[in-house]
Amino acid sequence: MPQSKRKRGASPATDSKELNDKKEDSGAERKVKGRRKAAASGRSDSNEKPKEEYHFWLMKSEPESRIEKGMDMKFGIEDLKAQPDQRACWDGVRNYQARNFLRQMKVGQEAFFYHSNCKEPGIAGIVKIVKEAYPDHTQFDTKNPHYDASSSQENPKWSMVDVQFVRMLGRYIPVGRAEADTSEAQGIGWPSAKHGALYQSKAVHTAPHARRV
């Protein structure tokens, strides 16, 4: 796997219908007698929030050259396509929320490849997770812009996953058009403006909503 050096972000997109269908039971006690296990259901606590399960992700990277500490941070979807087997590690994430999202990703899940920090940010294509989270090697490389002196081999702070190109979108979807909640944006499952965290954070996009592109 070639060493890459771009800073990236990752965020979830979920099926809102599934979230509405899920309720957590509280006050239930499980009793086991001999080999028999019985589960007693209790009342649902209205204060508890349902656990979100993400099936699609939004992963962002920079498609245009930007030099940081002598290294070019550029890595767009065309760069991914040029890699052996069209596969690469998604390294350089240095945001705790995004790191936690990476650690939740499962092999086979898909993600929107989002071009960020460029003239026209937006969704360019689809990738899939082909290797689940493991330590990000760039945190130990003193010459890498993402080196973290506080991280150790014994207790690494940062993780990465491997992704593989799936396909380009039929058309590039600029973020401005998606934010406007047009039918085109909704057609690819772009989160609507009501999910304010998507637009409030430059480092991490969080938006529980998805449809298959």
Structural class per helix/strand content? alpha+beta
Assembly state of the chains shown: single chain
Mean pLDDT: 73
Strand-and-helix sequence, N→C?
EHEEEEEHEHEEEHHH
Fill in the keyword field for this structure.
disordered C terminus; globular; 213 residues; ph1033 like fold; six-stranded mixed beta sheet; 10 strands; alpha+beta
Fold and architecture overview:
The protein is an alpha+beta fold. The protein has a single domain (9-21, 52-200), classed as Roll (ph1033 like fold), CATH 3.10.590.10. 16% of the residues lie in helices and 31% in strands. The protein contains 6 helices and 10 strands. A 6-stranded mixed β-sheet has the order 1-4-8-9-10-7. The protein is globular. Residues 14-45, 181-186 and 190-213 have low confidence and may be disordered.
Short note summarizing the structure:
The protein has 213 residues and is of the alpha+beta class. The chain has six helices and ten strands; from the N terminus they run E-H-E-E-E-E-E-H-E-H-E-E-E-H-H-H.
